[in-house]
Amino acid sequence: MDVEICTDPGRLDRERIFRWLSKESYWARGRSRVKVDRGIEQSLNFGAYLDGEQVGYARLVTDEVEFAWLCDVFVDAGARGRGVGKALLAAVRETLVPLGLRRVMLATADAHGLYGQFGFRPLADSDRFMELRSDDGAPAPGSSGADADTGVASTDG
Ligand SMILES: CC(C)(COP(=O)(O)OP(=O)(O)OC[C@H]1O[C@@H](n2cnc3c(N)ncnc32)[C@H](O)[C@@H]1OP(=O)(O)O)[C@@H](O)C(=O)NCCC(=O)NCCS
What integer pLDDT is reported at residue 146 of this predicted model? Predict the structure, then answer.
């Protein structure tokens, strides 16, 4: 099985990504199409393709100098367990290496074993980190607080 990874945002199947994230993921359920599109436009995107059809997605939010946040990693249910997720992570790592960032972060409920294969480790100094969440009753900057999807950083996935 040959998985093709492509970083061209113009090739992404946005409708499919919207469905995966908004209807099937555990972290972005209910995210609007507008927000999914805005996320794509402001990220480095990775599409995974089997026989030309998109079967996976991941994106990096980064300043390309110091920091990146890896999120919205998703493989279509019918294509799981065949190396697509690992191919996505390999491409992400390949993109990250030359940038030489100080820190790349992500959050996951249960896929630690996947990310661990690509060098990610649990936070060594978690007591130094803090977060501002829109679902904590503290509205994120610029947010009305009415939309649970306006967090400063997405929390999982
Ligand atoms: C997690 C996910 C991206 C993995 O993609 P995939 O194409 O099925 O994964 P691969 O076939 O490339 O292999 C995944 C590897 O990570 C391991 N792994 C660890 N935790 C895992 C998890 N929660 N889900 C899937 N694989 C996991 C697998 O055992 C496998 O390792 P191995 O080949 O050494 O046995 C996919 O199952 C998915 O989209 N799940 C639903 C959404 C999700 O949870 N996304 C991640 C959010 S952080």
Answer: 34
**What is the residue with the minimal CA distance to atom 31 of ligand 1?**
114
- Domain assignment present for residue 152? The answer is no
Instruction: Return the CATH number at 64.
Output: 3.40.630.30
Question: At which residue do the structure tokens 């972060």 appear?
Answer: 105
Mean pLDDT of 113-129: 97
In a domain, 105, yes or no: yes
Nearest-atom index, ligand 1, CA of 87: 12
Tell me how many domains the chain contains.
1
What is the share, in percent, of the chain residues with pLDDT greater than 70? Answer: 87
**What pLDDT shows up at residue 65?**
97
Q: How far is the CA of 73 from the centre of ligand 1 (A)?
A: 9
Q: What are the C-alpha distances in Å from 37 to residues 12, 55, 63, 100, 104?
A: 11, 18, 19, 28, 23
**8 pLDDT tier (thresholds 50, 70, 90):** very high
Please tell me the distance between residue 5's alpha carbon and the centre of ligand 1 in angstroms. 16
Residues flanking ligand 1, CB < 6 Å: 25, 73-75, 80-86, 108, 110-111, 113-114, 157
Q: Tell me how far CA of residue 150 lies from CA of 6, 32, 118, 147, in angstroms.
A: 28, 11, 29, 6
Domain span at 52: 4-126
